[in-house]
Amino acid sequence: MSTSPGIEPPFVSVVIPVFDDPERLTLCLQALQVQTYPEDRFEVVVVDNASSAGRLPCVPDDPRFQLLHEPRRGSYAARNRALELARGEILVFTDSDCLPASDWVEQLVAGLTAEPRADLVGGRVEVAFESGSPQTAAEWYEHLHAFPQEYYLRTANFAVTANMATWRSCVSAVGPFNAGLQSRGDAEFGQRVAARGGVLRYVPDAVVGHPARATRTELLTKLRRTSAGTRDNDLAAGAGRAHFVGLAARQWYLFARSVGASVIPGRGPDGWWATARYLGLYAEMRMIQTGVYLRAAARR
């Protein structure tokens, strides 16, 4: 990384919550040890979020890395714990199951500091498959729909915390994450930044890899969590019955759009069967979300 003579690059704190994931955390931390950003200008703050005995994380024997503990369950509570002690002018976020590219920190800092200076940026999240390409219906869903970071920033004013950066001054202005949320706290935080007139930017060259969810169970577990997070955020914001009815109806617009698209490559029965399995799972997911939003509408 090149900087102007006599000007030090901003000090960066990389924040990583972890729960029962020591193996993938180790890979993530190894990637952070070989960043192109000047090694004396960043630290890594790992927060153990009450992991099980035998699944406790450890960090490298490196003065840049520290391990904190947050007994209150929830990744946003863990991130807030890191914010209490992090020294960075810039705060960078990822997850224990992510694998940052070697220039990841450098690219996020460049995205934040480019004129006009941004208040919050999100990088690209590339979904990785165990076999190298999507095979299961769940993996096809992940391939087609997971982590549309640019879309989130453009239309919903947030970036997922798997690949996000902001200024400490921005956190001081809008407040930390909502520790009471189990999901979608990144959306709630980003929307507070935007509501104060903050500039949000997509940085496609700041890349982390994320393993695809390979099974129906994994995918539906995440869906129930994120749908409940959307519901809770919107209820807290005062959304009315019409809003939730509209969200429910949108699920079937999305499904119809997928039915009308040729989504799975391949000719003949193999391609048709893969498409049918994908659409079956997609329909189940839309039904689950419809139920969440209609029950919320009934409460208004």
Enumerate the strands of the largest sheet in spatial order, edge to edge or round the barrel. 3-2-1-4-7-6-8-5
Number of domains: 2
Q: How large a portion of the residues is in β-strands, by DSSP E?
A: 15-25%
Mean pLDDT: 92
Q: Architecture of the largest domain, CATH level 2?
A: Alpha-Beta Complex
Distance between the termini: 53 Å
- Looking at the structure, the CATH topology of the largest domain is Spore Coat Polysaccharide Biosynthesis Protein SpsA, Chain A
* Overall spatial form: globular
Proportion in helices:
40-55%
**Biggest beta sheet attributes:** 8 strands, mixed
Structural class: alpha/beta
Q: Could you name the CATH class of the largest domain?
A: Alpha Beta
Based on DSSP secondary structure assignment, what is the total number of beta strands?
Answer: 8
Give Rg in angstroms.
20 Å
Q: Note poorly predicted spans.
A: none
N-to-C series of helices and strands: EHEEHEEHEHHEHHEHHH
Pfam families: Glycos_transf_2
Domain Glycosyltransferase 2-like: 13-165
Keywords: Transferase
GO molecular function: transferase activity
Q: Can you describe this structure?
A:
One of its GO terms (molecular function) is transferase activity. Residues 13-165 form the Glycosyltransferase 2-like domain. Keywords: Transferase. This is Glycosyl transferase family 2. By secondary structure, the chain is α/β, with parallel strands linked by helices. It has 2 domains: 12-214, Spore Coat Polysaccharide Biosynthesis Protein SpsA, Chain A (Alpha-Beta Complex); 238-298. Helices cover 46% and strands 17% of the residues. The protein has 10 helices and 8 strands. It has helices at 22-32, 75-85, 104-113, 137-145, 149-156, 168-174, 185-195, 216-236, 241-259, 268-298, and strands at residues 12-18, 42-48, 65-69, 90-93, 99-100, 120-128, 164-167, 200-211. An 8-stranded mixed sheet has the order 3-2-1-4-7-6-8-5, sandwiched between helices. Helix 1 (22-32) links the parallel strand 1 and strand 2. The radius of gyration is 20 Å and the shape is globular. The mean pLDDT is 92.
